[in-house]
């Protein structure tokens, strides 16, 4: 009897010790908004849309005042986040072209691929190996793959938008669990749902999504699913369920929301809170941000309920700036928005919370990049990055804690075909080769990019051009051509941007 008690005690001790050892590795939660502008949430100055849950992350951690993404459009930006590398290094320079897969038959898939093949996009049409060079290359390593190899449970919940070939899908890129859709956009609810407000935008980018008249093809681990719940809410609930199911093991939870990307749909009860706003598109847009904040709140509350908030690194950011062409946001005082390399298109809200590791309620001034998410996460997990890749991000933890006093990045770069930019210190050079314009700004004095200094500081222009050329020489060629050239009005004039 005594021996049995001792054995039972030792087994229990062993189980508890294993659980404790597992939880010594921090959980990693990356929450990604879609087209959320720098000033679209209240902690960054929005006075019309309360976002208390997202704000709470800033109150418990650090808010970056100069956080940048790597591209002013969704798909390339997300590629850089998951790989920790400038997406141009591996040819992911332009938006990944949607493939309408999911519930489609093989015949429909073949018709789509054959049509794309005529446009030079598809290089293999075999059923077993549909090679679509639109998306992550086979040899690119994601954060999920690195963490999974080191004992983490992994999940992606939301919008994928990184390719639809077998080797590009979430399960092939390190995720144990995926719930969401593969495309760039889709409805949040069935059109004309009596509980939902639908707001169409008179824009070429909005019309194709409504034409589908249904959700983008939703899947759970590759199998089609039907859904009736408002999608932003559903994504939050799926994230909560994953936390509950994996609370005894270290996990990496990537939640790439599609909110508040078009199409504009939001629950009526939330839209009603913005009845004082005159413009209907803004009412729905603000309600979508509120729904996003509510979903983030569910994730935060679940971490607190399980006690995991004490050992979880949480990062919240957006894939690019607000889409000004919807007229629902303007990114002011920043210039421009989604599609362009002015700061309105590439400067994003960026928050990190890590209990007892990052001082609560702090701000960080130096420029940082979403490239840094990969390096910060693997460093927090005590893992080395793969040695056969060039990584462009850095571990931000010693910078935001004050352990390091220098800056994470001396220079940040952007290139989207003929539209390019470089920031070195406080100076930023923007080049649009198609429009034949070059602008130099001193962001320390002119964050709104109003005053072009290129004529008065030609040596600075030359210096930044040299740095930009040096970086471009290290890049690969785009693996596919841009989809189209988007004509975007930025303040007083129109510019062309490839997507």
From TrEMBL:
Belongs to the sulfatase family. The keyword Transmembrane helix does not apply. Keywords: Calcium, Hydrolase, Metal-binding, Signal. Residues 26-383 form the Sulfatase N-terminal domain. Pfam families: Sulfatase. Coiled coil: none annotated. InterPro entries: Alkaline_phosphatase_core_sf (IPR017850), Sulfatase (IPR050738), Sulfatase_CS (IPR024607), Sulfatase_N (IPR000917). The keyword Magnesium does not apply. Residues 1-17 form the signal peptide. This is Sulfatase. It comes from Pinibacter soli. The lineage of its organism: Bacteria, Pseudomonadati, Bacteroidota, Chitinophagia, Chitinophagales.
